Every structure is written in C-alpha cells, then in structure tokens.
Amino acid sequence: MARQRHNAKHERPKPSVKHERVERREQKLQLKARKHAESEASHVQQVEELDTQHAEYVPSLSVLFRFLALVRVSGALLSPIQDCDEVYNYWEPLHFLQFGTGKQTWEYSPQYSLRSYAYLHIYDMLIRTMHIVFGFRTKTQVFYALRVCLALMSALCEAVLVRSVAQNVDRRMANYVWLAVFGMAGMFHAAPAVLPTSFAMCLCTLGSAAAMVPPAADMGRHLRYRVVPAIGAFALAVCAGWPYAALVAVPFVLEEMTIKGSGTGGKNWRARRLCALVGIGAGTAFVIVGAMAVVDSWYYGQPVVAAWNQVAYNVLGQHNGSSELYGTEPWYFYLKNGLLNANIVMILALSALPMWILYYVALKQTSRTTLSIAGSRAIQQLFSGHHLLLFRIMPFYLVLLVFSLQPHKEERFLSIAYPHLCFCAAAALSLASPLQSWACALLGRRTRAGQSRAGYLVLAGAACMGALRMTALVKYYGAPVRAFMELPSSNVTGLLPLGPSIKSLRTVQPLYGNVDDRVVCMGGAWYWYPSSYWLPRGYSLQFVRELGNMDGHLPGDFVPVKVSGSVRSSTSAERPDFNARNEWEPLHATELSECDYVVDIEYPQRAEPKLAHSEWQRVGECHRVLDPVHSSVLARMVYVPQTLVWMTGQRQEWGQMCVYERANRLIK
Q: By the 8 A CB rule, do 538 and 516 touch?
C-alpha cells in the first residue's frame, strides 16, 4: 500500500483534451505572430533597401545618351523601312516638297486631306538646316542624315526618361529601363522612322519623364517642373503627331486629379489642378492646331484640320470609309508582335500589373497586423510609392487594351508605348525582390540575395535575343536598298536644290527636269519600295499589274512641279483618280512596255521568273531576300547562322531582288 501511494505521488496527471487545444492554439498564435513580425521586418528592410539604392550607380545623362545613340544610329543606317505606309505617306510627299516629284496617296488629295503637310515641314526644315552645314550632294545623304537625326533625338528622349526614373522613382529600376530599351528590337526600327507614331513616341517619352516628378507643395514649382512640361509634350504628340497618342496622357491626368501628394495642402487642390490642366492643355493645343491648320490650309487650298479629318475617317466613318478596309487582325496580334520585338521584356511587362496587385495584397495584409511604429511608417511609405507606380505602368496597358480591341491593327501603332513597355518590365523586376521577401517571411524561410543581379542577367539575355532580331532584319530584309543602288546614276553633279549652303555660299535653285526621264516599274513587290530618295534624279516609279497580283488603291503621282508650275498648284489640285474605299484605280498603273527598268523579287519556290526572256536583261547583281512563306518560323524571326540552320533542321528558303533593263531601251 505504501509503495502504491509513493508511485501515485510521483505520477504526472494526464493533460485534458481541452488543455491540449489551448496549447496548440497558443503555438499557432505564436507562429503567426512570428511570421507577421518577420513580414513586418521584411517591409522595414525594403524601405532600408530603397534608401541604400540611392547609392546604386546610374549612368549620367551624357553617358546614357552615348550608349543609346550607339544602337539608335546603327538602326538608322542599317534597319530597312518596315512599313510601306512610311514610304508612301511620308517619305514620298517629303521628296515632292524638296525635289518636285513623288508618289501621292489618296490621303493627300484635297477632297480628303487626312495627312498634314505641316508635319512634313518639321522634317523639311530640319533637312534644309543640315544642308546649310553639310551641303548634301545626293538624295541618299539626305535620307540617312534625317534618319540619324531622328535616331539621336530618340536616344536623348530615352536618356531623359531613365534619368527621371532614377531621380523620382528608383535607381535600380532606372538601370533596368535603359538596359531593356537598349536591347529592344522594336526601338531599333521605330526610332529612326519618320512616322507620326515615332514622333509621338519620343514626345510621350518626354511627357512621361516629366510625369515622374512627384507633386510639390508649391503650386508654381508643381506647374513648372511637372505639369507644363508634361502637358506640352503630350499636346505636341497628339496635335502635331498622332491623335491617338492621347491614351498615353490619360494616366497622368488621372494621377493629377486623384493623388494629392505629400506636402500639397489646400482644400481646393483638385479645382486648381483641373484649371491648370484645362488651361495649359487647351492653350497649347489651340496654338499647335492653329499653326498646323494655317500651313495645311495653304497647301490644300481650303480650310483643313488634318488631325480631325483623320479621326473622322477612321473612327466616325467619314467618306464611307473605315480603317478596316485596310486589313484586320485577331485580338492577340500585339501580343505576338510584342514577343517578336521585345521577347522577354514583353513577358515581364505583361506581368507588371499582376505583380503590382500581389504586392498590394501583401502590404494590405501586413498593415492589419503591424504594431510597431517603425513598421507602420515603413508600410505607409511603401503604400505611397506603390500607388504612384500604378499610374506609371498604366500607359502601356491602356494602349495595349484599346488597340487590341480595334479590328485594324498595325505594328507601328504599339510603338508609342515602347518606352513604357520597358518601364513595366523594369517595374516587374523591381517588384520581384520584395515579393520574394514577403513570401519567404510567410513560409519561415530565409531570403536569398542577388535579386538585382538576376534582373540584370535576364535583361542581358533579352538584349542578346534582341540583337539576333536586329541582325535578322538587316540580313534577311535589307535587299531593296541594295537593289535600287544598281540603277545607273545620272550625270548631274553639284549640291542638291535644298537652299543655301556654306559650301556654295549661295542658294542653289531647284532644277526640275534637267535630266532625261526614266521609268522604273515594280509589280507585286511594290510595298518593298525604299522611296524616291533611292532613285537617281530624273527617274520615276510606276506600277505594272501584270508583274504581280495587286489589289486595292495604289498610290498615284503628284503632278510634277515642272508641269504645274508650283508646289501649291500640285497639292491643291482635286483629282478624280483617288478614292477612300481602297478600290482599284487603273490610272495608277502602267503597261510593261512603258518601263525602262523593272525591280522585282523572284521566289524560285513559288513561280518561274516573270522576266526570264530576251527582252529584259539583268543590271548588276541580284540581292537575297528571305522567303517567309517557305522558311521555318524561328529561322525567319531571328538571325540563325547557316551552320545552325543545318544542324537544327530549320528551313530557310531565299528569293532574290533584281533590277532588269530593257535590252532595246536605246532604240525604243
């Protein structure tokens, strides 16, 4: 009995079921509290990392400009023109203003007047200014000089954006932006283009750079450094460039009306900002539209606002027309095109908004359980910057969404948001690090270092892929320029008639029709035409339907100045051979018997050569061009060396662009 009492005395009582539940609940609460503490500490650490990133090196504006100019000038000199609209709607009318001849599209007919001569005058004045210094002797010099100038302007705008991101958003993100822009194939051919979309792209980049500046308490400072530069750039992009570029400015306006900003006081801050936006925007737009309307009305011989006519035709269906007459594409067209021109950068840009939402959820969840003062301040600071980031990434998504919903799509439309695409990719890479820290804190794991290095490696890989695409554009599709160089040059020497030059110390007067006329014809490859800047003086282009299937409304010709007597007489003449329904016009084509030279592409895999008879003989060398129909997808998207093509089983089929001369031309 005594032994039993002794054992019972030292025996522990068994815990009850209720007691076990309480212990498990306490353990869960402790674990949860520890995770929240780690999450809170991670957010405090993120704020500290933001402070340390101010010491991260970002190249100066001068260094950035030199790096970006390297690839932009390369694109100006090497990249072929991607869109025949750039040739026929902008290079050809510009050639007419300077040399008195050129192809004319229906958009420049006075009864429609969809295009602006004032816009062309921007480039015309730029060329004539450069001519004063350099004294151009050939039209190809004019062509390349303008493209190089536009490339340098684009590089400067991109450098300004990167510096603004570094000063007002995040230095590491700024490094991501310039690396993404540097290696993007889309910027390679968009920057030197004379298209309104490229013009608007540069100005929207400057406007977005100004929009990165946070609101200031002083209204004068707020207007001087943020509102006036942003509204001015956006207004010039919309009114003088491309009306639909207004989409890029929408997030800036929303930010002005919804984000008060630190230190911005006053009860009527929204009303004051609204008055500033309306006043500055309307005033700037009135001046720009008025100036352009005066110039365009003089050329067309009637009151014209070309930007409005363009919107009325494409959106409101004026003249029974519609942009859908010129082709439609599926909704995912810009996604495929973005992957082609931006590869990994496009994928990162598309992930920016989902990652923004995830990080917002993480901040929201952590803010509910944060108890310390330091943690609350850190999360509040992150919230403030995160709200602003939404407005910074919105332009790309807005442009992508609106244009994807339109039936008519073209590659150049998305180019106005190319710099914003790169910013979204940089934002995604910057959000990856705090999201990883938050996830590791919830899972109780340690955060791995080296996220910034991983981001740089990803962008380096994207740049390499972009370089392969750039090389493919040059090697696979650069034949037209080389082929037109095979045409016999005229014997005209001396400076071009572009005005005064310090090399001549006098004004060189236009000399229209001082050489024998020659007719160069193209057939189904008419959209490969590199512009009249590649024709010797005295040569003109005509289309021959029997050389290929040609449907739709082909360009006609401006009435030559030597016939009309003046440029204005040609631009204001209404002609019945233009229509807005994309219908075939016989007067815009000629017969093969009228041609002195023919430039055509032969694809052996498709059909027999059309000019393989004794009446025509080749001039100079033929130049290879890739056959996209019979080549593998990868082999036509990026540059693949011939050895790898054979090893990987890819297929590359080639055609050739040749110049033919009529054998009996001299006795015709």
A: yes
